[in-house]
């Protein structure tokens, strides 16, 4: 709420607040049942099932403290250097955005 008030009054202070007399209100349908409604229901069901598995069925699953997949030294080295390249790419993008 504070951010909205700060934006409103700062826009009003510098004179860029939109003129409300230019707005035309028209009738429109805001809610209709289409494919997105059914997709939302499907994903809500999937999410509910996963929450059920996570909270109530996790006691039935036997956990071991081993690694999820065997890792080789080569794979670790390759992933480390890929991460370094990504960090350099990100830093370069930030420098271009803010300094050029």
TrEMBL record:
Q: Which UniProt keywords apply?
A: Membrane, Transmembrane, Transmembrane helix
Report the transmembrane regions from the record.
Answer: 37-57, 78-99
This protein is called what? Uncharacterized protein
* Annotated organism of origin: marine sediment metagenome
């Amino acid at each position: 709420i504070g951010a909205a008030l700060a934006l409103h009054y700062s826009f009003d202070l510098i004179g860029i607040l939109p003129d409300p007399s230019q707005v035309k209100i028209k009738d429109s349908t805001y809610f209709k049942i289409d494919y997105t409604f059914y997709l939302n229901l499907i994903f809500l069901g999937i999410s509910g099932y996963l929450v059920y598995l996570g909270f109530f069925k996790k006691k039935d699953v036997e956990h071991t403290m081993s690694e999820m997949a065997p890792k080789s030294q080569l794979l670790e080295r390759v992933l480390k250097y890929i991460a370094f390249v990504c960090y350099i790419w990100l830093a370069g993008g930030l420098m271009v955005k803010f300094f050029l």
